[in-house]
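Q: For a teaching handout, I want to show students what a protein-ligand complex looks like in token form. Below are the inputs, and the small molecule is pyridoxal-5'-phosphate. Please produce the holo structure.
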Amino acid sequence: MKSLEVTLRALRESGRKALVPYFMAGVTPNWTQHVAAAVHGGADAVEVGIPFSDPMMDGVIIQKAAELSLAAGTTIDSICAELAASDLGAPLIVMTYYNLFHHYGLRRASGRLAQSGVSGAIVPDLTLEESEEWRAACDENDIATIFLVAPSTTPERFARLARATEGFCYASARMAVTGRAQGAGDATRVVDAVRATSDVPTYVGIGISSPEQARDATEHSDGVIVGSALVDTILTGASPADTEVFIASFRRAIDK
Amino acid sequence: MSQPPVFMGAPSSTGRFGDFGGRFVPEALMPACLELEAAFIDAWSDPVFIDEYHSVLHEFAGRSTPVTYLGRFSKLFGVEVYAKREDLAHTGSHKINNVVGQTLLTRRMGKTRVIAETGAGQHGVATATAAARLGLACTVYMGELDTHRQELNVFRMELLGSTVVPVTSGSKTLKDAVNEAMREWVSCVEDTHYCLGSVMGPHPFPWMVREFQSIIGREAEEQLTARGVGVPDVVVACVGGGSNAAGIFAGFANSSARLVGVEAAGGAAVSNGSPGVLHGMKSMLIQSEHGQIEEAHSISAGLDYPGIGPEHAFLAASGRAEYVGIGDEDVLVALQTLSQLEGIIPALESAHAVAWIMQEAGKAIPRGSTVLLNLSGRGDKDVAQVLDILRGRE
Ligand SMILES: Cc1ncc(COP(=O)(O)O)c(C=O)c1O
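A: Here is the structure, written as tokens, with pyridoxal-5'-phosphate included.
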């Protein structure tokens, strides 16, 4: 079992629901301070977005963040260098599109990520069917490969994806790209479908933008992912202190 | 005895043409891709579906399109050029062949709506047309830059009852329109088919669109045989995503003809690109040293695409077809030359193939060769833009 999954299973054993914020790396020069502040505010793990020119699964907020980050010259190497130089105090999971890793070289990319303290990767356009080489590269470097399931996922695919995913299973609550829909939607049904075939921790994402939505979603899951709502505050000028307050409000709601 | 390789057959079960193709989409879209694959395989072996597809192309779209011998052009350049006249098909380009197939399939799958991306607007107009005929709702995503370059096509789509959504993200051209259509498809996949406009995207699109376009090559092959020309020495077509080229190549893939695809020099994915993954497929892409997709640049909105269909990437890698780039200046000259010599104003896209013949006649195309040119579309949509460019120089 990958280290990330050991950690996240232990978190569940301890009775704590996971809170996983998403940040776009490089969107502001002080983005790692936002990450550190989020961990301080109660985040259990952090998703680090690596910007891609053509983010097919993302709505306007994360598109905008990616554009800003790319314009600032962000690359896999620059992100890894910054992560390696910071001690952020929580598991780091990168999220990006397959072309970047394909272009960098799969083994080279997973090695570089691992050296920089990353323990998981989400690649939303990499289907289970096409993932064999990437998973093998990640196996060599103790990187967990996290798969998404969606409301449209068929029973047969739920079983295969729940078996393949490592660390946690990313349950999309809605049929939408990031930042476009609000509320838990089909989360309950999707989480149940994963649980029917696997005991892997299951976190709900896509559509979680308020502490109340996060609380509702964790009533029937092991954690939540908060993306666009948080990125939006940073795009409109939030400071790391604001980020800590933002995350703390989600933490309180989840812990009740 | 070893069999000669058979080109342009079905891809592997995972949608691969050699190393290219496959399926790289969010999980939310996987069920729709699998459903589409099953529906296409079923329809394409059903004589009732195939009959309807052919009769709609005949009665509604005006097929078969003729092959025209370009007498004055041939004489001037010293090669024998025959043009396959997709410009004469309904809506003015080959795009109608694909959308007739896909809209019939949409209805067969029980879906009531289509979405599409468009660059020049030709695929958008064709989709709007075919959707109107079947009473399907239709929304077309078009880069904001292209909505200005092709304003009349935007209006045509609206006249046909479709909604046009300008796409303001990224480079505001075709690749961003594809991104946006994919994003939208995630939220409406239950009742909506994504009518992709070229031989690109996730499996089964590259294969399905090629099959729906292969009527171009099959007709041309029969027409040239009937006129006693036989197999041409060269078959040439312009390439954006590569659907008109795939359609005409399909008639000659296993013949002795040389197959040539002409990309815009500013979007030459085979010559200047490298393998990568975009829009659901593994193919040749123009990208930065870090794997960021670059913007293509072309005078023709329809060739402004930084990639190429995966089967073309395979045909290039295997050496069966060759791909070249042609610059904007040569395209403008070719458009005027064909207009004046033959009374045919070609689309800017198609003029790329014309320009290649003009450049290579007597060189890469030996004197006296027979050349089959796919005239993928007519230039009506482009005359205002060409007028602006030429006037600006006076
Ligand atoms: C007339 C014409 N030819 C060619 C193309 C390029 O598409 P493809 O390469 O798929 O044939 C277009 C696209 O808009 C077009 O309008």
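A: Two things your students might notice: The pocket of pyridoxal-5'-phosphate is lined by residues B 93, 119-120, 122-123, 198, 238-245, 302-303, 347, 349-350, 376-377 (CB under 6 Å). Residues 17-57+95-208 of chain B form a domain with the Rossmann fold fold (CATH 3.40.50.1100).
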